[in-house]
Amino acid sequence: MNVVRFIFDGIREMFRGPRIYWIWLAVLTAIIAFGAWNYSLQLADGLVVTGMSDQVSWGFYISNFAFLVGIAAAAVLLVIPAYIFDRKDIKEVVLVGEGMAVAAVTMAILFVIADLGRPDRLWHMIPVLGRFNFPVSLLAWDVLVLTVYLLLNLAIPFYVLYSRYRGKQPNFRAYFPFVVIAMFWAISIHTVTAFLFSANPARPFWHTALLGPRFIASAFASGPALIIITLQIVRKTTSYKISQSVIDTLALIMTTALQINLFFVGAELFTDFYNEGAHAASIHYLFFGLGGFSSLRTWIWLALALNLIAVTILMIHPTRRHPVLLNVACILTFVGIWIEKGMGLVIPGFVPTPLGEIFEYVPTSVELAVAAGIWAFGVLVFTLLAKAVIAIEMGKVRQRESESALSF
Amino acid sequence: MSKAGDKFDQARRNFLRGIGLGTAAAVAQPAWGGQTFQDALADFFQKDYRRMSKEEIDEALGRIERRVKAQYDVDIDCQNTPPQENVVYGYAINISRCIGCRYCVHACVKENNLGRDSQVQYIRVLELDQGNFNLEQSDHYYDPEKVPVEGKHYLPVQCMQCDDPPCVKACPVEATWMEPDGIVVVDYDWCIGCRYCMAACPYWARHFNWTTPELPAKEINTNCHYLGNRPRPRGVVEKCHFCIHRVRKGQQPACMEACPTGARIFGNLLDPDSEIRYVLANKQVFRLKEDLGTEPKFWYFSD
Amino acid sequence: MTMRTAIGLVGTGLLAAFSALVAYAQDSSEPGGNLRFEGYPGAPEIQVVSRIDELFFYPCDECHATMEPNPDIRELDTFHDSEIDHGKGRIWCHSCHQLEDPNNLITLLDEPVGIDDAHIVCGGCHANREKDWYFGAHGKRLVNWQGERTVYNCTHCHNPHSPAIEPRAPKPAPPVRAGLEREPGAEHEHTPIWESHEVDDEP
């Protein structure tokens, strides 16, 4: 009964707030509804409403999926200092980070489902009932690791919050093993997602051992960028205390990760371009265009520029500590990585096709709308979770004494 | 083809005729996508091909036939001809004979009930410049008045029926696999449409039904196979299956039959006296992207 | 496949040709006994589609019976192909057609061969092709891959008076996905190596 009460109180807290909070929820819901309506069009007519083709068979959906798995994995950057190095300041916000992981994984899964030709057959993946091609298929791996990661990120905060709710200290020994698992799992989800692409010799652009490390590096740059901005919003909109030292640590991690990511990009560029072989056709298309087609060229140079400006801001101590400039750097990093690791990674893998055809992809309005809906859904999930988490952490939502007496 | 298979098919047909009479009235209802509620429900819960019993496969074949009847008013004969024993198919193309006329491409479209509006084609013929074998410099859309064009050569590409197929490894739900006779097939009723196999295929052999494949009723090939050319649903992946409904009965694939120059050679790789084995033993052959380790059962040679 | 029923399969014709050859080998066993052709050892049994009923002018002796055999190389003004685009001037009508019995062809060893056994005549010069044809690497097999092998003769596909395959109109180029258009791109940038090097025309 206590658990039910806890969930009930949590949900009640989610839907309690000032007018501005309700407007925020309403805006998100409207975007979700718009996305859902567009998805219904896709369900009715099939994926023909997208810009995808046999030539470019994955598009905007999978691009966002790859990016969001990275955001989800980045929650580990709060988990490690909080639980392993016992940083009290970071422990305060670690649950917010895990809430972000839940939202990001949810979005990632939704993007995969939106991309399916037959979502009605999703049950075919369920082991025993369906056929789950594990451990051979990397996609099966991805489904497994994402599901478990989602559960881990729901279970750990649930236990911690439930303890707080009852006015008790969570038993560290009880949940520490799960924290350790979650740490490794975070790395695994993004590694598996990278392997999903790099496992294909058919696509030389993806088929590089550097892809896994690159994914982790870019995730550890874009993840903290989002967390830094989110924590500042939380600090502004609630009375929850978030110490500046958390943001400083994250900024430092982000700086290093972005530097490493740019080095990786450079290494890839050198290897491909020094002696341009078949391996380089896609990257040539991406950066310079190929056969008169170059729709990604502007975007990738923009991404590179954004990341270079961001890394410059971050590398200089005074600018990194400047609140406005740090936020600028965060936004630039987030957008830059989203382009580079989303469309900039997924699409060139298909251009040219394995038979050398160059056929371009442009997302349709339906795809953009569905994607907006999914992003809004993720933001909504995070908003609701954060609302409840902060209220419980601050002791606003507590089990009433009389009830706890009754329940025994 | 084996006598037992014949008998089995005959029995099945009789069985289906019985069902057909019983459900004739129900078929007329347009609800459930032109199916009866029972059929739609059974379709939804249908197991994957390799786990269905003989009876369940027969029922599935019946539903397929009724679905096509309801949609097009055409009676197809959807069979489940099993693989022959001690047969593994191999294909070879004499590229010095190929003139790039695309007769194979269009014969394939008709034979395999490929959606005319979804515009899927299993075979792609590449036009290359003399002295150049770089696929990235090939032309897929050449359209001169007459072929072959001087100074060009041609390379038809279709599913290589790899012996170590990367698409099969990629599929998260085991909806695609290699049959005992070496043909890589797709269970169109099990595929979830994630298209990971398309990303994994180095030959661009797998194609997706972005929209519902529509067929002109008059042009429907009624000789169908569950794993082959039966009319497909939307949202699933399909590919060349060496005309499984023909070759398992000893007939040639439609592309080979349509080839006006005899450039296509097909046969049993396990038979040392077959034409395909003669080609492999006596001609300089190569395979596309052999370095990827996919072991294609599809060779090219020239003379 | 559209094969007229009237066109019989002349496996028997082939056998007849073989026995003719064998007969020749026996006849000429004294002076040149090693000159004999009996097909290829290990070659599979084939049935060759007859082409005789498709021939407009056949039987040849309907006209040629009343004409004086003329082996001279000359300008042809009859309704036969006026030019022989075969052999680059090295062969003439009677290289393949029997002069005295115009209904038959003739081998290099002056053996008569029926029209439907043309491959024996062709193989006289194109021995490698003929071998490939026997074993199935050249030519066209019909209907099935398994069981009885039915093949076209050389002359089904190659006009013996101008054997190069005629260019033909290709079927339409492939479409792209329904609802999408193909943007015309730039021409392929590849320059053949021989065009990228400068040739000094001055001696």
The total number of structural domains of chain A is 1
* Class by alpha and beta content of chain C: mainly alpha
Strand-residue fraction of chain C? under 5%
Q: What is Rg of chain C?
A: 23 Å
Largest interface: A-B, 49 and 49 residues
Written as H for each helix and E for each strand, in order along the chain, the element string of chain C is HHEHHEEHHEHH
Quickly give the CATH architecture of chain A. Up-down Bundle
Molecular structure report:
The complex is a heterotrimer of chains A (408), B (303) and C (203). Chain A is an all-alpha fold and 408 residues long. Chain A has a single domain (2-407), classed as Formate dehydrogenase/DMSO reductase domain (Formate dehydrogenase/DMSO reductase fold, Up-down Bundle), CATH 1.20.1630. In chain A, 72% of the residues lie in helices and 0% in strands. Chain B has 2 domains: 3-75, no CATH class; 81-303, Alpha-Beta Plaits. Chain B contains 10 helices and 12 strands. Chain B has helices at 3-27, 31-34, 37-44, 54-72, 103-111, 166-170, 196-200, 244-247, 254-258, 275-282, and strands at 77-79, 89-94, 124-129, 152-157, 176-178, 184-186, 206-208, 223-225, 237-239, 264-268, 285-286, 298-301. A 4-stranded mixed β-sheet of chain B has the order 10-2-12-11. In chain B, strands 1-8 form a two-stranded parallel sheet. Chain C has helices at residues 11-27, 29-32, 61-64, 93-96, 118-125, 127-135, 154-157, 193-196; strands spanning 47-48, 104-106, 112-114, 150-151. Chain C has one domain. The model of chain C is unreliable at 1-34 (pLDDT under 50). The longest helix of chain C has 17 residues, at 11-27. Chain C has 203 residues and is mostly helical. Chains A and B meet through helix 7 of A and helix 6 and helix 7 of B.
Give the topology.
The complex is a heterotrimer of chains A (408), B (303) and C (203).
Chain A: H1 2-14, H2 19-45, H3 60-74, H4 76-84, H5 88-91, H6 94-115, H7 138-165, H8 172-198, H9 211-237, H10 244-274, H11 281-288, H12 297-315, H13 317-321, H14 323-341, H15 343-346, H16 365-393, H17 401-407
Chain B: H1 3-27, H2 31-34, H3 37-44, H4 54-72, E1 77-79, E2 89-94, H5 103-111, E3 124-129, E4 152-157, H6 166-170, E5 176-178, E6 184-186, H7 196-200, E7 206-208, E8 223-225, E9 237-239, H8 244-247, H9 254-258, E10 264-268, H10 275-282, E11 285-286, E12 298-301
Parallel strand pairs in B: 1-8, 2-12
Antiparallel strand pairs in B: 2-10, 3-4, 5-6, 7-9, 11-12
Helix pairs in contact in B: 1-4
Chain C: H1 11-27, H2 29-32, E1 47-48, H3 61-64, H4 93-96, E2 104-106, E3 112-114, H5 118-125, H6 127-135, E4 150-151, H7 154-157, H8 193-196
Parallel strand pairs in C: 1-4
Antiparallel strand pairs in C: 2-3
